[in-house]
Structures are given as structure tokens and as C-alpha cells.
């Protein structure tokens, strides 16, 4: 086995402020391993890309170092508090304890606005967390990792339409225009080193993630979720982004299908550089979203008050992601468009509000 480079060595510092996370163990993991299914560990599934994905991963993930939404609690058979990707020894212990794991999903990262507000903490989670995970994987001889990159990796020099992961590999020095994007770029660099030393890294460029859950993080594309909740409550909404700035999004059902397709693909099918793929969904402007919402809530009121960070990112990021590469190599195409997304999210919020008596 080749010696892993020192650049991947963890800083071996514990977390400054531990986050409570859960570890979920699939009792049927031995059968899954024999049948060729890919059990894995999943740090960070409570944030951004992880929201709304518990059901899709429940039959595939054996150890999940992340909080699940309330609706997924029935799937929990074992819980452990205090898992944090900034703590190398915790990651090391999990992978040593669960020898059956051979795929790790790294979803642990603050969202775009959160990173802009506190870049040093974000760096600890995103970059040092990745370093901890990769070194723990190396020690445990786990080769495959799936990392969720972001449209935040694209800067002002990137194409506006049909952006690809390939473009990022062909322009490694482009400036993403944010600490968020630069930290994602650093993670891709670590993944390249991991691949050089025998690993099987795969990464997905994700758009904004939409879902029916009751809570979400502080990202740019989350304005859409905030607007849908306000509409369900029949409250006015203050829009923080330009009404005519299109942004790529994806509904959680499509996200699960796309990521599982990337995880499960045979290596000889992955023809894109560094095994990076855009996972597309839908794309819309705030104006288009509000028009669709008014089909359900005709008196929905909107005013515009631009947030400096959110409006900056909305103009910086691409309008759409390419659909070709994921369709050809992974067999993935998105299914859910704007009308269905709005209908499903509003219905979920209304059901919760009715149950709470609000």
C-alpha cells in the first residue's frame, strides 16, 4: 500500500464547539455487503444537501454521522452523540469500529452565507474535516468517498449556461469569488491527492437543495424555502435576491437518485475528469417562483430587500447545470420541475401548520 501524502494528515485538533450528531447502524449490513450493495458512512447529512435525504439513504447507509429529520427517527437503531468531522479521533474510531463501511459520503460543510459570516469556522469543518475523513479512511483502508461540491465553486469567469464539473477541473485557478467556493476547491485538491494514492473519490456539483422538511440552513438558494414557508403561513415575504436572477436548484428526491447513481456507477463508466459530475435539477428566478406560488396563494405579497451576500452569490453563480454528462455516464435525469416542487413543499408546510394548530 502506497504511503499517503503528509498533506492529507489531520491537524489532530479536537473541535472547538462539538456538534451533536447521530450514528445510525443498519442491522442488515452483512447481507448488504454480501449482495454487493455499498454501505457507507455519512458525515454532515443534517445540513444543506443532507436535508430530506434520510429516506433515500436509509436502505444504503450503515453508519450515518449526522442528525436525521424527525420523520426519519423511526429508522434509528443506534445513536451516538458528539460526532464532529473536526475531531479526527472520532472519525477514526467510527471507521475502525464499522469495518463493513467501504463508501463515505462527506456532506459536512456550512452553507454559503454561513461561510461568509464565519470563514474560519467553516474552514475547520470543510477543509480540516475533509482531511480528517480522508486520513481516517486511509487508515481503515476505505477507498471510496463521495463529496458534495456546489455551484458556489463557480466564479464570474464560468459559463452561465450548462455548467459542468469538467470546467472546474480545467480551470483550477479560477477565483470562485467567495471563501465558500475556495474551500470547496481545496477539498477537490485533497481528493485528487487521495486518488493518486489509491483512493476512489467521486464528487458532485450540486445546485440549491429544495425539500419538504421543516428546517434548513443559511444558504443563498434557501430563499426559495423561506418564501414557500411564508406563503404557507400567508405571511408577506421579503426577497433577499434579485427577482430576475436565475439559480439552479434540485428537489431532494432527484438529489438522492443522482448521488446514488454516482456512488454505484462502475469505475469504467466514469469518464469525466476526477470523477466529478454536475447533478442537475431545475432552474428558476425568484419572479418565476413567486408566480407559481400565487397559483396556490393568490394574495402572496413580496417586497425586495437585497441581502449583500445572497444577492452577490445569486449573480455570481451559473444559471443552469449541464444535463448531458450525468445522463450519459450515470443514467440520471431530473424528474421534478417547478410546479410539482412548489405543490409538494406547500402541502408539507400546510400539513405541519394544521397539526400544530397554527
Automatic annotation (TrEMBL):
The lineage of its organism: Eukaryota, Sar, Alveolata, Dinophyceae, Gonyaulacales. PANTHER family: L-THREONINE 3-DEHYDROGENASE, L-THREONINE 3-DEHYDROGENASE, MITOCHONDRIAL. Residues 42-54 have a biased composition (Gly residues). GO terms for molecular function: L-threonine 3-dehydrogenase activity. Residues 82-265 form the NAD-dependent epimerase/dehydratase domain. Pfam families: Epimerase. Belongs to the NAD(P)-dependent epimerase/dehydratase family. InterPro entries: Epimerase_deHydtase (IPR001509), NAD(P)-bd_dom_sf (IPR036291), NAD(P)_epim/dehydratase (IPR051225). Residues 1-54 are annotated as: Disordered. This is NAD-dependent epimerase/dehydratase domain-containing protein. GO terms for biological process: L-threonine catabolic process. It comes from the Eukaryota. Coiled coil: none annotated.
Amino acid at each position: 500500500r502506497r504511503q499517503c501524502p503528509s498533506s492529507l494528515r489531520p491537524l489532530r485538533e479536537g473541535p472547538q464547539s462539538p456538534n451533536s450528531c447521530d450514528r445510525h447502524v443498519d442491522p442488515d449490513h452483512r447481507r448488504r455487503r454480501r449482495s454487493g450493495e455499498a454501505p457507507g458512512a455519512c458525515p454532515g447529512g443534517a445540513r444543506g444537501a443532507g436535508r430530506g435525504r434520510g429516506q433515500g439513504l436509509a436502505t444504503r447507509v450503515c453508519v450515518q454521522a449526522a442528525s436525521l429529520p424527525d420523520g426519519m427517527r423511526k429508522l434509528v437503531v443506534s445513536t451516538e452523540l458528539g460526532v464532529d468531522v473536526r475531531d479526527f479521533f472520532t472519525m477514526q474510531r467510527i471507521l475502525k469500529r464499522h469495518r463493513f463501511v467501504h463508501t463515505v459520503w462527506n456532506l459536512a460543510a456550512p452553507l454559503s452565507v454561513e461561510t461568509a459570516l464565519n470563514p474560519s469556522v467553516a474552514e475547520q469543518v470543510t477543509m480540516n474535516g475533509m482531511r480528517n475523513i480522508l486520513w481516517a479512511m486511509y487508515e481503515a483502508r476505505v477507498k471510496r468517498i463521495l463529496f458534495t461540491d456546489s455551484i458556489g465553486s463557480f466564479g464570474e469567469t464560468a459559463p452561465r449556461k450548462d455548467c459542468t464539473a469538467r470546467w472546474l477541473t480545467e480551470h483550477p485557478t479560477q477565483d470562485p469569488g467567495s471563501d465558500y467556493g475556495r474551500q470547496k476547491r481545496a477539498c477537490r485538491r485533497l481528493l485528487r491527492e487521495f486518488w493518486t494514492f489509491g483512493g476512489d473519490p467521486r464528487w458532485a456539483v450540486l445546485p440549491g437543495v429544495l425539500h419538504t422538511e421543516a428546517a434548513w440552513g443559511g444558504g443563498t438558494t434557501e430563499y426559495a424555502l423561506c418564501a414557500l414557508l411564508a406563503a404557507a403561513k400567508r405571511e408577506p415575504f421579503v426577497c433577499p435576491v434579485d427577482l430576475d436572477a436565475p439559480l439552479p436548484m434540485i428537489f431532494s428526491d432527484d438529489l438522492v437518485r443522482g448521488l446514488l447513481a454516482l456512488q454505484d456507477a462502475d469505475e469504467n463508466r466514469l469518464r469525466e475528469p476526477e470523477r466529478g459530475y454536475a447533478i442537475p435539477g431545475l432552474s428558476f428566478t425568484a419572479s418565476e417562483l413567486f408566480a407559481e406560488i400565487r397559483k396556490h396563494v393568490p394574495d402572496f405579497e413580496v417586497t425586495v430587500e437585497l441581502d449583500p451576500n445572497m444577492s452577490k452569490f445569486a449573480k455570481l453563480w451559473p444559471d443552469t447545470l449541464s444535463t448531458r454528462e450525468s445522463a450519459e455516464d450515470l443514467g440520471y435525469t431530473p424528474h421534478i420541475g417547478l410546479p410539482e416542487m412548489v405543490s409538494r413543499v406547500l402541502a408539507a408546510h400546510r400539513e405541519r401548520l394544521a397539526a400544530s394548530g397554527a
